[in-house]
Fold each of these.
Amino acid sequence: MIGTLNRKKIGNGAFMNSVNEPKFKHNRITLCLVTPLEKEKATVNALVPFVLRKGCKSCPDFTALNKKLAEMYGAILEADVGKHGNKQIIEITLLLADDKYAIGGEKMTETAANLLWDIVFEPNLDENGHFPEIDLELEREYLIDTIESDLNDKRTYAIGKALDLVFEKEPFGIKRYGYVEDAKAITSESLAKAWKELVEEAQIEIFFAGPGNSEIAEKVFAEKIASLDRNPVKTSESEMVDYSPLKEAEESMDIAQGKLVMIFRMGAPKTEKEKNAARMLSALYGGTAFSKLFMNVREKMSLCYYADSHFERGSGILIVDCGIEFENREKAQKEIINQLELVAKGDFTDEEFNDTKGAIINSLGSVGDTLYSVESWYMSGIVEENIVTTEEDKKAMEAVTREEVMKAAENAKLAAVFFLKGGENE
Amino acid sequence: MSLEMKKIESKRLGDCYYKVEHPSGLTILLAPMEGFSTAYAMFGTAYGSIDTCIKTAENGEFKKLPEGIAHYLEHKLFESEECSAFERYAKTGANANAFTAFDRTAYLFACSENFEESIEILLDFVTHPYFTAETVAKEQGIISQEIRMYDDSADWRVLFNLLGALYHKNPVKIDIAGTVESIAEITADLLYDCYNTFYNLHNMVLTVAGNFEPEAVLKAADKVLEPAKDFYLEHGDCGEPESVVENYVEQHLPVSVPMFNIGFKGKAGTEAENFRGSILDEIFVGALCDDYTKVYRELYDEGLINATFGSEVFCGRDYISILLSGESRDPEKVYNRLKEEFEHLLEHGIPKDVFECAQKTVYGHYMRSSDRVTGVATALFNCHFPGVDMYEMLDIAANATPESVIERIKTTYSAENSALSVIKP
């Protein structure tokens, strides 16, 4: 069971969201800035959370800030950028013990809310309105390293390459952390401008989950937001492409295992019903340890350790990937296609179908059991403008039929194949 | 039959768990958590990749085993004559998995429904091995691919290269899954030998946390578990010296920025000493280089470390080391600076304000794990084999002083017995 979401407008384009969860000992407070994902701004926006976490007007020194957090029983400050469909989300989180665990009776929730506000809206700017030069330089370098670190994990790298093939110019294909060339071009001025635009124009979503009194935080935020001069910009929905011609690519690298990634377009599923059928298909096909891909590509053919499928709701695609011996590429690819065709033909038992449903419903039952999953569950709903509880989602998944899953499999058309193979870099 | 459930409470957290000594020989640790929907269960044995040879009362002499056999056994235990455990769990909707570590193997599941059925499956399949030449052969391809995947993982390679530099003889330096060659030597008979030696209920533990009825666990245990034979096992001393093999090791892999692991090799004591001591070591390493320290700031501002920099204390049955990891364009400079700071702290002690930050951070870390069913079941599991009470970890952190920490570090570590492992692009 997930707690009920309490959502309230507290300012121009600003919302306070809270879920009271008395079973936890900590509160998680996240301040999100939701903005359209645009290629020109993606990189500089991604740098904003990295510089924000270095300090603020009320605590300008990075070491002093970290000390302050450590003294709050090791409170954790996270600052990152995420993307959801065609939206970019700057997320600054504080995770800290609830007031009742503060040995000295400190008012930690209030302190945290103020600190979070200061980090995002009252940064340590100089007289020209710029971030400290050293922060710009160090964090820009770190952003470049982060962009390039895709290479360190070959699985992530291969999936990224396959996504590039599929999306090319669609907004869904814009990289989460942006692009190296754009990062190199960031200046004090462009960074300051990006921050200013975000705080003025982005939708502000504050999320509070935990046992604490969210009204304490709400009061802090509501008062401060009232003083802001805001001009929020609404993100328009991007059209999903239904199908695109198949694109294939290969790359060689000095590696031990080949990585095969196949991406299917699902015919732009728009309704919840269609999306749920695609989710169900993905689970039946390659989402569990008794799925078609697991039982055949791994267990029967011993071709791989992992062969998974994953449906991306935001962009409407199905990603399948596995790690194999280089020479087994054809064999694996053929079987992956074959298994999908079998599902489309209805070659799965009612038992497999119901067991898959059971696995989804069972895992939905666990969403309310970590602060992080509570937040990400509701934030997805908020960003997609379709807020549902896990109980409602369970009912919707229960209602998916065999025929809908077969139809979803039939709708799947291969759009990209990427293979990372061994040998010298070409 | 009603068994005695011993209640163990934490005043600090207001939490409790129950300990049951089941007549089969299994220790069962149960932590029902109010308000949670998930139950998380772990059933496992004090057997892992470091158990590369066995000596039991029956055979009387040490017998060498192929590297990676504990992990291979973990994979194969999921099979039975009828169907795999995954297929059985499919009927309950539980999300099941398993892992093999250096000195542990664990089988686990999470569920929000049908707990009674799932706990019975867990107890049943782990206590009923079924290995044949055919099923063993089938797994070669799958595990070979798992090994290849790790061969390409820079995070994994940088760690094992470091362990190879730190340890002369301790099998902790061996890759958990073994090699494609070593696993080729594994047979069904060898798997049975290992199973019968290590999967004795006296050498195992069951921990459950979250949403479940303790009675349901005991009922399943009564139904499934047979009394275990007496247990005798000698691990033998691997004869590991205090010194390290070498101070520097590097490998080239396709990565974007050089990655490093630094290890300070500790003098291992008993498993319980290592475990308790590791909490003081965590406080020390916080005071050494966590993000509120001067040295962290200097390294950061010089562009020598970035936000990926982190630390952990790596400990188990007969090994303990402090590990630091990150990305750097000059890992040797980072290593040298940290060694200097290490010696400086031992000589001058830890400043009071820095100590408080480190202590509160470590305390907060253990408190956070009590907020998750996975965290609680895992902590119960990890504490069982060293024989430490889960809540004692908070007390150790709370009662630490700068002096007790420095004293522990002086007798356990030295800047000299350390190494740097680097992965270069």
Amino acid sequence: MLSQYLKNNVHFLNSAPTWEEAIKLAAEPLLNKGNITEKYVQDMIQNVNVNGPYIVIVPGIAMPHAQNHDGGVLKTGISFLKLKEPVFFPEEKDVNILFVLAAEDATGHLELISDLSSLLIDEDAMVKFKEASSETEIIEIIESVE
Amino acid sequence: MSNATAITEVKNPSPSARARIQAFGGFLTNMVLPNIGAFIAWGILTALFIPTGWIPNEKLAEIVGPSITYLLPLLLAGTGGRMIAGQRGAIMGMIGAIGLIVGSGIPMFLGAMIIGPLGGWVIKKFDKSIENKVPAGFEMIVNNFSIGILGFLLMILSFYVIGPVIESANNFVTSAIKSLVATGFLPLLSLINEPAKILFLNNVIDQGIYYPLGMQETLKEGKSIFFTVASNPGPGLGLLLAFSVFGKKAAKRTAPGAIIIHFLGGIHELYFPYVLMKPLTIIAMIAGGMSGITVFNLFNVGLVAGPSPGSIFSYLALTPKGNFLGVIAGVVVAAVVSFVITSIILKLDKKADEEEDFTSSIEKSKSMKSEGKQILSSSLVNPTSNTISKISFACDAGVGSSAMGATTFRKRLQKKNINGIEVKHYRIEDAPKDSDIIVVHKDLYERARLSHNDKKIITISNYIDDPNLAQLINELEEK
């Protein structure tokens, strides 16, 4: 399911000036497709400001997300951004992979999370994943662990 | 090792004083670093276009003043406010800072770095106090007017407080310098000069005190050391070089650019943010300044006029014949001294980080031990309470990272064939009261403790592969 959701939502960039920008850039596909509103992007940034960079779920990988209040999320979705050069989150955590998660309700996205988790605990897949440089490659690797 | 975490037990002692100081240092750094680009932009502009710059341009030089007076402090205040309370904090911080700026009449960096977070804190407290009390439909008006009214008050407060503060600082600096000059031992002047520069009183001291003194002496002797006491570019060069070599990440990467603008362009303001990031480095600046003055004194050298801007080129241009060796030596020695001391400070800082990791890992092993005892003793007293049947992962929203943690943990349990444990994810505040263990990210520990004071809380910093979770799985496996 994760692989389907990621179609056309995968981007690669050289760098991002700040972590806030990185979240914005990573969220762009969801914003453009109408999955989320500008407000949700701000909420995700605010979440880090208030609660700290706990969305950096493993070293190098962040999963920006926030609570869906005031209709910030219109439709569950996920987007992916990979940076050549890492960007620094607070507490000097460097991140070069971002999965932006938008969850419409408390349950609809759990399969996505489950797939993502399968990917992250599969060491072989992660080695390939960190090397991947195209959407096709990314999606193939994810399909292999789903 | 940033992922060193501790299995934190209920009623754990509060973080050590050193950890707090470190957190504060990190706070200063995070407030300054994102804005270095603006400092550099301003530095290039100034080095080029001011009347004594490379290509003087009266029109473009008009940007110089407002940028340093308004733009840079406002940016710092905005970043400071944002770090405390997000966008609303940023707005409050900047509103407060403008009162300060207009009230002081000099570039108010330090003030902005205080008022910014203060503004953020005020609005955060306010927002918290009205949380869930605003009737539906009125959120927008309450949001806007709360910033509007509180900001208005903060603006006026900072305007009235800052004027007298600056005036008394000016008076203090002026009289302190005069009495130090009277002692005849000039290196002592650095004790006042360097802190005053960082506080942006450099124009007051240079143009108000040293240049007049220098001009008197020049009339008599053709040169004066007073032109050099506060304008030596050496100490700043040493500081920035040390940051280029031993600094951390972004500070390290930006320092070389700052060197060019500071040392060649003569815009000393470029090194101020680095001192503000690591306030202890002021010691290096003072020592650098002192050794510079000592060397100038030893060689009995001076300049023929006030070097403005204080770049190495204006120094050389204003050095009278026969003084070159002494002037260059003074600059070089100052740079070397401040480089060495700044390097030591930066190195100690790194070491302290490592020690902190080290102590936290000791704490961790201790708490693991006591936890082991606790499990043991509780199993002796009441064998049934020992079983763990419900583990709750919690995060801010209860949809993302907690779900990730819970899912991954379930998979790991499955692999190990451990059954009969319910692993679910929740918003921190909604985690059920009958959970045996609550797992949160270490950043959210305080908040989790507020709601679940009586629970065993495990903190993690990695949702997929955390040593504390591995430890928990081992424990569960043994049962």
Amino acid sequence: MKRYCDSLVIGGGIIGLSCGYYLSREGFKVQVIDSMEFGSGSSGACDDMILLQSKKPGVVLELAMESLEMYRFLHMELGCDLGFKQMGGMILIENQEELAVMEEFVSSQRSCGLNVDIVDREELRRRQPHVSDRFISSTYSPDDSQVDPFLVMKGFINAGQRLGMEVRYREAAVTAEKNGAGRWQVLTSTGCIVEAENVVISAGAWSNIVGGLFDISIPIFPRRGQLLITEKIPPIGETNLWSASYMVTKLRPDLAKVRENQSEYNELGLGFSFTRTAHGNYLIGSTREEQAGFKKLVDYRALEALSRQVAHIIPLMRHVHIIRHIAGFRPATPDGKMILGPWPGKEGLYVASGHEGDGIAMAPITGKLLSDIFTGRKSITNMKELIPRCMVV
Amino acid sequence: MENEQNRLICRCEEITLEEIIQAIDNGCTSLNEIKRYTRAGMGLCQSRVCSRLIARIIAEKTGKPLDEIVPVTARPPSRPVRIDIFSPRGCNVKNS
Amino acid sequence: MSRIAEHPILGPLKPSGREVSILVDGEEVIAYEGEMIAAALMASGRRVFRYTEKRREPRGLYCAIGRCTDCVMIVNGIPNVRTCVTPVEPGMIIETQRGIGRWGGGDHGIH
């Protein structure tokens, strides 16, 4: 059997579906295929944040801010609830050294237009009465928001289908070649050949495997993140929470404090995130592991480390039940920026992937930018940094 | 209960028969997919109560034999466990 | 109080703990220390332990072995406590849970 389309999107996670939807909106005939099931990859095994505060000033922060603006209205465009909530976020600061680093970071973000500030101990207590009093202050941004990734994916599918987009799960790309007319011929696991003008690879952590079918090497590798999911509980404080120690480790490695169990922290890449889902469960994160490959296992060491960390920061959480311990693969790139645009030397081949921990936040803007590239519309942001680049992995 | 469609299948998340059938009509064919699509099985009991019911609905709606329907992915802890069980009070730093 | 004193298979049943007083939605209930909260509530004639979040329907004891969600209540200011697997302690303050419940309440200091 043979199918024809303008654009074949390989990867039906939140990024692929966003690309599919925005391309359909421009009138392209789009088919999305995914070797797995709805929500079985990283889009279904992540936190749900549109987090602006963690972004360094530059293209990533600018795009995240734009993506947030799109999310504010996306439910109207897609015609369904997306679980969008704007709870704001705070990054907890434990000592003067962290405070100095965060003050500098926050002021650089403010100069980019991000609504963020440092608040004192009293305001921290007022907004977060259950946080341990070890923390001396915190950042606060009212803009940090979140969505339900499953609802967003469903929304893109349903709205895309109304525009003629076709989505097929459990159909993998097997081989790819160009025919005489310069169109891609992609053979799939169902025995179908899909002929398409353009192919978009948006397979997240698996993008490089798909890239292999097109003889390209995409510098995206899986970074495992383990998360704990709690039962539904009443809100803990006003906002979602992170800890500055992890941010400081990234921004100023020389200041990273030496812990008793340093090697464990390093191996697990432990950082603290604490976010309330649209349904009232909390997601407690997270690890950031380099060496796990595609093993979707969770381990007791991480369960213990994540539990200890949250009980240490929010003692009330000792009473709360963990109902699920999950792992997901963040599509990581060597320079920490997503890859978006046409692949050099391969006409009709595009990559939209490598968002690491920002896939949910960046989904709308990624699809929108890709459709802008397809239509040749000049994009408002500086794309140079994102266009597929040769990087040493 | 007012009618059959309104019957609860997932007690924890309060998901109805109608919602399960809608998910199947929209292309979901596995327990995991229905879970992600509807939240049935995402609650405190982690689908212990509803997954057999849903498997039967899938079998009836799609004709797939019951014994070919793969169970939902199980993840630890297999029962709800309080955080302090993993992190005893006063033992915030592990000495190992 | 309705309790089974003479069980057809297990024979005579004697509560093992001492009699203690707990507070259920502001009312004093006499229970046996160490029995499950749900048992004490059932014995006192209570059947509705909580109201669901979406449909606001009443729920009570369902599986009775700690596997389902149905018998959860607010116990000493902590919501979502499965009363069928949580033993009675003297002076416990137990409240009907509405939806996902709330922290604290009354004057119990949670920490």
